[in-house]
Structure formats: C-alpha cells, structure tokens
C-alpha cells in the first residue's frame, strides 16, 4: 500500500518540484510579499489544495515542509536590512573585490586591526606592510574625514598623513588625493615599531616571527634587539599611555575567540 | 521565477533596499528550515550570520543562481557553527517527531490530510544528513538538483539519488506511522508528548536566549 516504494527518480523529481511550486506561487504574487499576504496564520497545508496530489503521504509531508512563510520566520528582516544598509554605507568594510579572501587567519586580522588602530602615519605604511599588491591606495571612499591631520602631528613627516588607512585597496574613489609617496624605509620601520608596540606583550614575540615584521627584525639586528631598537627609534613620548594600553575594539575582537560552551553570548 | 529573481538581485546589488527585502523574504523561510535541520535551535543565529555576510558580499555576487550562492554561505556558517560547538553535524532529531505527528493527526485519514510544517521538518531531519539536505534543498528551498549539488559540493546525480532515497525512507516512516496509529487506536488516548515545544527544538537545551 505504499506506491512510493516503486517510484523511480522521475517521480521523485516531480514530487520535489511540486512541493516547492506552491511556495513559489505565493512568492510570485507581487514584489513585496508581506507575511500577512500569505496565509501565515495557518501553518498547516491542506492537501485539497491544487498542485498537490492527495494520494501521497510523502507529497503531503513535502508540501508541509515547504509551506508558506510562518509567523516569526521573518523576524530577522530588519536586522538583515540594517546589515544591508550598513554594507552599502561603508563598502570598504564589505571588501567586495575579494570575497574569497575572507578566511584570512584571525592573527592577520588582529594584526591589521592593530595597525589600523595605531599607525597614524597613514596609508603608505599600511599599504606596504599588508602583504597585498602595493597599488596606490585611495582613501576610504565616501567616508567623511573632515580633518585628516588632526591626530597625526607627532613625529609624522609632512606628506605622510594625508590619507587615512584604507582597509580596501583599490576601492574606487572619486576623491582625488595624492597617492602616498614612496615609503621611506625609516618611516616604515617607525610604523612597524608602533604596530609592534601596540601588541600585547605576550604577543610581541610571536609577532616577530611573522613575515610582516621581518623588516623590523632585520633592522634591529635580531628579535631580541627589537625592543631597544624601537625605543631608540621611536621614544615613547606618552608614558601615560603604555603600548599595550587601549586596543581598539576592532583590534581586540578577533583576538578573543568564542569560547565553546557559551553558544549564546548575548 | 529565476529570471525575475536575477532582476531583483541586480537591483539589490545596486542598493535597492526593497529588492533586498524581497530577497530576504523569499529565501529566509526555506533557509531557516534548512538550517534548523542542520543546527537545531541555533538556526536563527546562523541565519542572521548568513544574512550579514550575504549583504556584505552581495556586490561581489557575479551571477548564477542567487539562492544557491546564498544557501552556500548559510551552509558554511552552519558548518562553522557546528565546529565551534564541537558537535558533529548530526541532525538533531528526537524520537518524539513521530509522536508529534501522532498529535497532529489522530487518524490515518487525517494524517494524510494535514501535517504541520514543524512535524514535516522533524521527520525529514530524521533522515541521514545527506538525504535530509538533498530533500530540503530541493523541496523546501526549491533548488534544482544541479544547484543543490553545487551547494553540497556533489554531483547533481548524487543529489537526485540522495533525495530519492530520502523520500523512500520517509514513505516507509509514514506508512509505519499510519499502521501504528491504526493498530493502537486513538480513542481518548492522548499521544505521548515529551515536550511542549516544537519537535526539533526539544532536543536542545538553550539556557540563554540568543
């Protein structure tokens, strides 16, 4: 009494297709489908409806599984739209040019974050040390930056503080600014020192083993010399703010992996 | 519908918020049901993560079947989630799915009349994961076998076979359920209900509301 046992693949395909056809039918009613337009209040699927042969329990099951939207299923809509809006407002964060590069190691993300937080010297340094194609980096598109000079006064050479750090190289920008001048090696090591100091003390040693800091290690003459070297090169002018001081949220977030056992950390 | 959808997708890529809403509304119900079979009660959280990434990466979407692209993102998030939770991607299926079915339909006749969506999903989730995913992607999200295969990293033929086996298994399940119902008799005997909540979520203890 189970006709499905003898069913072949064609029957299967037909069943699977017809199950979703119903849901599609509700979709095609109009451009904005609101939950109230569909029969959201009745999550049951009645087999007397067209498209669904009433003989097959399996068909009934599939139709129920593919039933029109139920209350609550669209609860996340505003959050999703907000994310969409945010991605539009700040396309630099979206990194649309390289969707496959999302799996950068978290260490690299943390490092870039630390650089972005501390390297006030600007884009020239960032472009050089990020191991990406060092094409001329435009400033972050469409982000209003009324006074890019305000926080970069100390020990920054003139001309290096024009552009804020642009996290997305190659992002098109109608604003024309001077591309960063060819980075002087000294300035680069300056920036590396700052970036290195911005790290937590327990991470500094490990950082020196990464390729990004190799120039610093070389310039200092060895990993053990880096601290003294940086102290000579860039004296810490603000003793009230130690290097491990205030990591920005963006720099800190990837360094604390989610702890298993706390699934909903809200 | 695919042609319409691609127009909507390009509108959304151009920044049309209403188009994005439409994409969300058309995809999210099926996506949520699919994710429920993968990660149980955390499906909504995973779906939120997925939509975050979808909205971020939408400008980079370069054509093709949008739903397959989006579902692939969601599935990856689900797999990441399972890795984080150190759970195997076992489908959380309680035995009481069948009891729920019984509670939905007191008699064999009514069992073939109405089935709740939750119950149907719970039953599908009792299948081996490959079969369950194939059935859900095909019937609930509405992908064709080729697109479902791209989501799963398998050939279209493998998806067809898995879906076929899954449906056959479901048919047997339903038949057995019907026979059980008929032999037990339901006069005044309330079906055993292990939990008050929906079947799929009953197996998960969720201390914090996400």
UniProtKB/TrEMBL annotation, chain A:
- Annotated Pro residues bias: 136-147, 255-266
The transmembrane residues are: 108-128
| Basic and acidic residues bias: start-end ranges | 199-208
**Lineage top rank: taxon:** Bacteria
Which keywords describe this protein according to UniProt? Membrane, Transmembrane, Transmembrane helix
- List the residue ranges of the region (Disordered): 25-45, 132-212, 230-266
Q: What segments bear the compositional bias annotation Low complexity?
A: 148-165, 173-187, 245-254
**What protein name does the entry list?**
Uncharacterized protein
Q: Which organism is it from?
A: Micromonospora trifolii
TrEMBL record, chain B:
Residues annotated as domain RNA polymerase sigma factor 70 region 4 type: 121-170
- Ranges for domain RNA polymerase sigma-70 region: 23-87
Matches recorded under InterPro entries: RNA_pol_sigma-70-like, RNA_pol_sigma-70_dom, RNA_pol_sigma70_r2, RNA_pol_sigma70_r4_t2, RNA_pol_sigma_r2, RNA_pol_sigma_r3/r4-like, WH-like_DNA-bd_sf
Q: What is this protein called?
A: RNA polymerase sigma factor
- Annotated spans, Disordered: 184-210
Keywords noted in UniProt: Sigma factor, Transcription, Transcription regulation
- The answer to keyword Zinc-finger applying to this record is no
Q: List the Gene3D superfamilies.
A: 1.10.1740.10, Winged helix-like DNA-binding domain superfamily/Winged helix DNA-binding domain
Transmembrane residue ranges: none
- Species source reads Micromonospora trifolii
Similarity field: Belongs to the sigma-70 factor family. ECF subfamily.
């Amino acid at each position: 009494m189970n006709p499905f046992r003898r069913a072949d693949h064609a029957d299967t395909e037909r069943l699977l297709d017809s199950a979703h056809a119903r849901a599609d039918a509700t979709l095609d009613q109009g451009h904005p489908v609101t939950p109230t337009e569909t029969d959201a209040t009745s999550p049951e699927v009645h087999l007397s409806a067209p498209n669904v042969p009433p003989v097959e329990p399996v068909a009934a099951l599939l139709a129920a599984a593919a039933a029109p939207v139920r209350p609550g299923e669209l609860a996340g809509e505003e959050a999703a739209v907000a994310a969409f809006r945010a991605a539009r407002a700040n396309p630099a964060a979206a990194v649309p040019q390289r969707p496959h590069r999302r799996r950068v190691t978290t260490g690299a993300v943390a490092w870039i974050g630390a650089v972005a937080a501390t390297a006030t010297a600007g884009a020239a340094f960032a472009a050089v040390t990020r191991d990406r194609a060092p094409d001329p980096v435009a400033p972050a598109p469409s982000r209003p930056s009324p006074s890019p000079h305000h926080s970069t006064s100390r020990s920054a050479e003139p001309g290096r503080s024009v552009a804020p750090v642009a996290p997305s190289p190659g992002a098109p920008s109608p604003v024309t600014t001077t591309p960063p001048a060819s980075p002087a090696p000294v300035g680069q090591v300056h920036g590396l020192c700052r970036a290195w100091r911005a790290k937590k003390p327990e991470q500094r040693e490990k950082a020196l083993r990464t390729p990004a800091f190799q120039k610093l290690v070389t310039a200092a003459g060895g990993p053990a010399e880096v601290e003294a070297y940086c102290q000579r090169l860039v004296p810490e002018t603000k003793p009230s703010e130690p290097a491990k001081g205030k990591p920005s949220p963006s720099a800190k977030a990837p360094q604390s992996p989610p702890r298993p056992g706390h699934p909903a950390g809200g | 519908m695919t042609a319409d959808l691609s127009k909507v997708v390009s509108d959304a890529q151009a920044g049309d918020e209403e188009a994005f809403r439409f994409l969300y509304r058309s995809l999210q119900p099926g996506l949520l049901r699919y994710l429920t079979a993968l990660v149980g009660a955390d499906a909504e959280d995973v779906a939120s993560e997925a939509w975050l990434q979808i909205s971020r990466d939408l400008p980079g979407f370069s054509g093709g079947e949008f739903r397959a692209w989006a579902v692939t993102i969601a599935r990856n998030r689900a797999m990441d989630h399972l890795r984080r939770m150190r759970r195997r991607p076992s489908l959380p299926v309680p035995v009481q799915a069948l009891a729920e079915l019984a509670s939905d339909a007191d008699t064999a006749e009514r069992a073939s009349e109405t089935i709740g969506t939750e119950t149907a999903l719970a039953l599908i989730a009792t299948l081996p994961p490959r079969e369950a995913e194939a059935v859900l992607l095909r019937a609930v999200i509405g992908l064709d076998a080729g697109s479902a295969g791209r989501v799963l990293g398998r050939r279209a033929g493998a998806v067809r076979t898995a879906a076929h086996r899954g449906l056959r298994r479901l048919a047997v399940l339903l038949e057995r359920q019907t026979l059980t119902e008929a032999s037990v008799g339901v006069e005044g005997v309330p079906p055993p209900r292990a939990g008050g909540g929906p079947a799929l979520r009953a197996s998960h203890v969720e201390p914090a509301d996400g």
